[in-house]
Amino acid sequence: MKKDTFTFTNNKTNESYEFDILEGTRGPSVVDISTFYKKTGMFTYDVGYTSTASCRSDITFIDGEKGELLYRGVAIEELAENHTYLETCYLLLNGNLPTSEELLDFDLELRHRSFIDENLKHLINSFPDRAHPMSILASGVSALSSFYYEHLEDTNEDMRQEMARRIIAKIPTIAAFSYRKSLGIPEIYPDIDRSFTENFLYMMRAYPGGKMKRTKDGSNEIKEIEVKALDAIFTLHADHEQNASTTTVRTVGSTGAHPYVAISAGISALWGRAHGGANESVIAQLEMIGDVKNVDKFIERAKDPNDNFRLMGFGHRVYKNFDPRARALKKLQDQLKDELNLDSKLMEIASKIEEIALKDEYFIKRKLYPNIDFYSGVILTALKIDRPMFTPIFVIGRTVGWVTQLMELQQSSEFKITRPRQLYIGK
Ligand code: CMC
Fold first, then answer.
1. In ligand 1, which atom is closest to the CA atom of 315?
2. Labelling 406: which of 100, 299, 334, 362 has CA 20 to 30 A away?
3. Pocket test for ligand 1, best of 323, 329, 368 (most atoms within 8 A of CB)
4. What is the pLDDT of residue 336?
5. 10-residue block means of pLDDT along the chain (427 residues)?
6. Is 373 one of the catalytic residues?
7. In this predicted structure, what is the pLDDT of residue 343?
8. What is the extent of the structural domain holding 37?
9. Which is nearest to 109 in space by CA: 172, 170, 200?
10. Is residue 177 in a domain?
11. pLDDT at site 338
12. Which CATH number fits the domain that encloses residue 12?
């Protein structure tokens, strides 16, 4: 059968070059330009990789025009509403949802692996008080490579899966320890009688010694609805194909570096305001706006080409429609409104921004819709989570995505060091 091809013509020399067109199972066709330099002596130029597919992947699919996101072919809405984060982790790692017995084994193993070496705890404690938890978290995960150096030599699928389960289990503990260090209070060890998500809330909230805050009515300090909401947030963050942090993980992984060092690099990439750091910035911005009456003024600033002010939580490189994760969170926010006593002032400002922006010509023309970070900050605030922990929570959810993408790279027959070229404009 004849392959579809794409022909480039150099209008200077009138030479034409043919390249294969590759078809995935879904999404746009891809022109295979891997021999472009060899054939033409030229490079392609694509700042920010807006038109470049960097790998083949069967993990996550996004249709940015439709606003659709699938993990291993399963819609994100289905996972957030009807499955737990641990089931989602299992799905990403194994390609299928677990049976109840597989889930039980997976859950128990993660509980037992949630502890960290005491020396790693000492390292965390050596950071200055008030250090940002993201900085401690990135360093802690990088340091984990010294405690599990053997993963550098992982040669088969079973060993890699163990490496993956280990990091997924330990990330919430390192994040919670980082948080408590940033507050200058003693850490709380994991409680293996609690589920993955409940345990994380417990490690953040409990008093030294592990007792929970006493309430007048004797109710449990960690409400079921809070666990459900945070669990859905983890699920919605679990993977997002070749975004900046995942591309960073794959780039570092492509050099043959230790997997946990690659994950640590992903954590650093995620921290920026244009990426995972946006959830912290959204709340800071809502607080700065301060009142619904100021919203118009800030919308005008966001539209002004001479002002570098941007509406945080709006816009996305891939979504040119409502971010499906944002849609799921908006639904969750509405469900939680009464039960969690959401901060009404922030929500009022957020709703006003959304209402104006969705009708405004500037945002419509550029297809700027609210993204996941626009809603997650308000929900996390309602869960009484301090703002510096918003991006670490994104990290906890995304770790499974990073590690799954890394394993896919390691198993790929196309494994190659990432090494782009440049258009030199110097002396
Ligand atoms: N507010 C105002 N204008 C915006 C915004 C915004 N939030 N985002 C994009 N624009 C404008 C931008 O000024 C440009 O206008 P013009 O064509 O007139 O120059 C146009 O829209 C295209 O913007 P871009 O920067 O070329 O788009 P990009 O694909 O490179 O950037 C983005 C995507 C997410 C970095 C950007 O939309 C942004 O900075 N948003 C705010 C930060 C944010 O919410 N980030 C979280 C992303 S979702 C979480 C994740 O998956 O990481």
1. 37
2. 100
3. 368
4. 82
5. 88 96 96 97 96 97 94 97 97 98 98 98 93 96 97 92 98 97 94 97 92 72 90 97 98 97 98 91 92 94 94 91 90 81 79 92 94 89 91 98 97 94 97
6. yes
7. 60
8. 5-44
9. 170
10. no
11. 74
12. 2.20.28
Angle between helices 278-289 and 295-303 (to 10 degrees): 130
How many domains would you assign to the chain? 1
Residues 37/419, Cβ–Cβ less than 8 Å: no
CA 274 / ligand 1 centre spacing (Å):
8
- Distance CA(303)–CA(320), nearest Å, equals 18
pLDDT (0 to 100) of residue 254? 97
pLDDT confidence of residue 244: 97
Residue 154 lies in a domain: no
33 within a domain of the structure (yes/no): yes
Do 266 and 236 contact (CB within 8 A), yes or no?
no
User: Which residue pairs from 63-70 have beta carbons closer than 8 angstroms and sit at least 24 positions apart in sequence?
Assistant: 63/26, 63/27, 64/316, 64/318, 64/319, 64/320, 64/321, 65/320, 65/321, 66/321, 67/319, 67/321, 67/322, 67/323, 67/324, 67/327, 67/369, 68/324, 69/240, 69/324, 69/325
What pTM did the predictor assign? 0.93
- Catalytic-role residue among 83, 237, 316, 323: 316
